[in-house]
Specification:
disordered C terminus; disordered N terminus; 10 strands; 4-stranded antiparallel sheet; alpha+beta
């Protein structure tokens, strides 16, 4: 192997760094912070492609791709396999990028169910393309992000869904008690490529980068073994897609700012707050015309509405009509309970410890997001409901009266009460609320098995931080 080839491979250095493995968050639930912001002039001639291929940028991009894991693309290559392939083929890939001849593979179509019905179509790029998209994202985002609207919260450094919901709550509390809830119909599938690339070209002068972005947009989609060419849309699933969507919808943000509206936008979810229903109807009509004529996007009339805030959901939350309280939206609660039922289905044949281990990551992730609500009673009620599901699960596993009697006695239940409960013909769910079963399986039993709590008081958080847990 030549010295030049060895040196080029060493520059990639796709090993994790000792520091900076995890990105720093600006606040709870925030998007990862990127490098210091730098505005890019449309007339700038700085070679973006060379910057994208720099060693440090690629190392950070690889760490992010590896941390996000993700399924293989159309080439079937996993993260581990891609690492070896990159070490061997990176010099050729890098040369293609610098020469402007790189061609990405089609994305793999994956469908996931939506909480409110239907499916969301994702496009999963292969690992190498994910790495290149992430490296390009890191270079472009630090230039573009400072130019975006302060009312845009989705997929931006230091911004989060929690911030968007809190700002929406402030608007309602200030007296803007009517929300214009806009839902864009299949936004990620209908972005016009020419309009999008025109906006990119205003900000990027490196022709190789423009050609690469268009190549990603035109790469096609593989579905059922066939590759379908696409003329519009930015498939969800690639690292670059959220940035391009924010660029496209920045026109909407600037138009709403020009009109003086109070609004919050998170990706394609936009809420505008006004003082009266009549004003809301006017805004809905005029903004819909703007989206159709200027951006060639369509508002989903079935899912959009002008209504009181507590009748609509925004990023999984609903807001009381006076703005005093943010609540978990009913649809989010329904989805949560459905998932818990799946994980605690009584005929799964796993031990209670195994079931709790499977519950842990879901509950912790759900709590980190929906713990932002201001209704602790809802969280404590959900905790009680989960424990009852687990008591019902265990009661079925004990199978018969003799074994149930033995288990109840072993857990300190008096003989008479244990005999009455063990001999009861009542169903599993009703028995999970029986005093004897609750006495045998008190809350501390589930705590000792590591079942996460959904409501964590401020005092508990302080004590945990002091203990370092």
């Amino acid at each position: 192997m030549s010295r030049t080839r060895q040196k080029t491979q060493q520059e990639l250095a796709l090993e994790p760094m000792d520091r900076g493995e995890a990105p720093v968050d600006g606040c709870q639930g925030a998007e990862p912070l990127m490098a210091a912001t730098v505005f890019e002039s449309p007339a700038s001639t700085r070679p973006l492609m060379e910057e994208m291929c720099e060693r440090e940028n690629l190392k950070r991009a690889w760490q992010r791709v590896r941390r996000n894991k993700g399924a293989p693309g159309v080439d079937g290559m996993t993260i581990i396999e891609a690492r070896s392939a990159l070490r061997e083929h990176w010099p050729d890939i890098r040369s293609q990028l610098l020469e402007g001849t790189y061609r990405p593979l089609p994305v793999k179509r994956v469908e996931i169910p939506k909480p409110d019905g239907g499916v969301r179509k994702l496009g999963v790029p292969c690992v190498v393309d994910r790495l290149i998209q992430q490296a390009l994202l890191q270079v472009l985002q630090k230039r573009w992000d400072p130019t975006f609207s302060k009312h845009s919260y989705g997929f931006r450094p230091g911004r989060s869904a929690h911030q968007a919901v809190a700002q929406a709550q402030r608007y309602v509390a200030e007296g803007y008690g009517i929300v214009v809830d806009l839902d864009l119909e299949k936004f990620f599938d209908r972005v016009n490529h020419d309009m999008l690339m025109a906006r990119v070209a205003v900000r990027v002068s490196d022709k190789r980068v423009l050609k690469l972005i268009r190549a990603f947009l035109k790469a096609g989609v593989m579905e059922d073994g066939l590759v379908c060419h696409v003329d519009e849309g930015t498939p969800q699933g690639g690292p670059l897609s959220p940035l391009l969507s924010n660029l496209m919808l920045d026109d909407l943000d600037k138009e709403l700012e020009r009109r003086g509206h109070r609004f919050c936008r998170y990706a394609d979810d936009c809420n505008i707050y006004v003082c009266s229903h009549r004003a809301g109807e006017r805004v809905m009509a005029s903004v819909s015309r703007f989206l159709t004529k200027k951006l060639r996007l369509k508002v989903n009339e079935a899912k959009s509405a002008v209504a009181r805030p507590e009748d609509r959901k925004f990023l999984g939350f609903s807001i009381s009509n006076d703005g005093s309280e943010r609540r978990i939206a009913p649809q989010a609660l329904k989805k949560f309970k459905t998932r818990i039922r799946e994980l605690t289905y009584r005929t799964r044949g796993k031990s209670l410890e195994q079931v709790i281990e499977e519950l842990k990551p879901y509950l912790i992730g759900w709590r980190s997001y929906f713990g932002f609500c201001q209704t602790p009673r809802v969280l404590t009620n959900l905790e009680a409901w989960i424990r009852r599901r687990l008591r019902s699960y265990l009661w079925r596993q004990w199978q018969n009266g003799r074994n149930r009697f033995k288990e109840l006695r072993r857990r300190g239940v008096q003989k008479f009460n244990a005999a009455v409960a063990a001999g009861s013909p009542t169903g599993f769910w009703r028995m999970s609320g029986h005093p004897a079963v609750q006495m045998a399986l008190r809350n501390h039993v589930f705590d000792s098995l590591g079942l996460p709590r959904l409501h964590v008081s401020t005092e508990s958080s302080i004590r945990s931080n002091r203990r370092g847990t």
